Amino acid sequence: MTSAQRSGEASSGEAEETQPSSRLRRFLSSPVTWVGGVLSTVAAGILVAWMPTGGRDLIDRMTNADPLPLLRVTEDLEGAVALDRPIDDADDRAALLTDPDSFPRLVAKYGGATVGRVDVSIVAEGGRGRVRVVDIRPRIARKLPALDDSYFLPGSGGEPAVISMTSYLDRPDIRFHLPGKAGGLYFSAKHIEIARGEQVGLLLTFEAKKAYYEFDIVVTVLADGREYQKIINRKDGTKFRVTGVAADYRRFYEGDGSTWYPMRKGGKCRIFTKSKGC
User: Fold this and answer.
1) Which structural domain range is residue 135 located in?
2) Beta bridge partners of 230
3) CA 45, CA 194: separation in Å to the nearest integer?
4) Which tens digits make up the pLDDT trace of 201-236?
5) Is residue 219 assigned to a domain?
6) 3-state secondary structure of 199
7) What is the domain count for the chain?
8) Has residue 153 been placed in a domain?
9) Is 124 part of any domain?
10) How many other C-beta atoms are found inside a 10 Å radius of the C-beta of residue 243?
């Protein structure tokens, strides 16, 4: 094969390689293609603007966006607390007496829970044109006898926040009730409707007198003509906890906001009249 032939074949190959890209450039730069792209963009904009709620509901539905994002979940641990077992580590005992900020960590480490009730505050935001919360209820994962090792009574912290709805975990029906002793079931009387971008705060109170409970919270939501369920746990992914009051405890402590110290017999016996030694 001569050098001229090789050169001709190379030139032919280069022409074959560049020919499709040249056609593509011509197509993309043609007025028809440009006008078609503009018209498609305009049509999409008109469709979104014409549809209810600006078409965002359709997009959210197609992308499975959360219809009720949670902005905050907090748990009130300001009341009395009971532990499942004694604080037996020397460093932890020292922290209990000298470092009040360590108390939540010690409660978690030694299987503690608030006594009598726990308040869970939730701030949620509407993620559709209209979202309807049709039910909220606790789902009990574990039930045990009331914790009875150590009892911690903090100093008075003022009046509690207003209760929005209450679940009585000792009862057969643990659905939420309206405030007050005669309050009926909350979600049989009303639903909670939230518009897109609107924020709503809920204060959920869980009461226990007879036993210890671990639970999460199930929220049922209607949006897009469908039913969704959200499962809410603590920030660290663990279950919420609350315990009833035990008949007696092995150890009693009281706090003044800066430290914990053993409770005096007189104070203990005023609260627990049937405690050993009273």
Assistant:
1) 65-268
2) 219
3) 26
4) 899 999 999 999 999 999 999 998 889 999 999 988
5) yes
6) strand
7) 1
8) yes
9) yes
10) 29
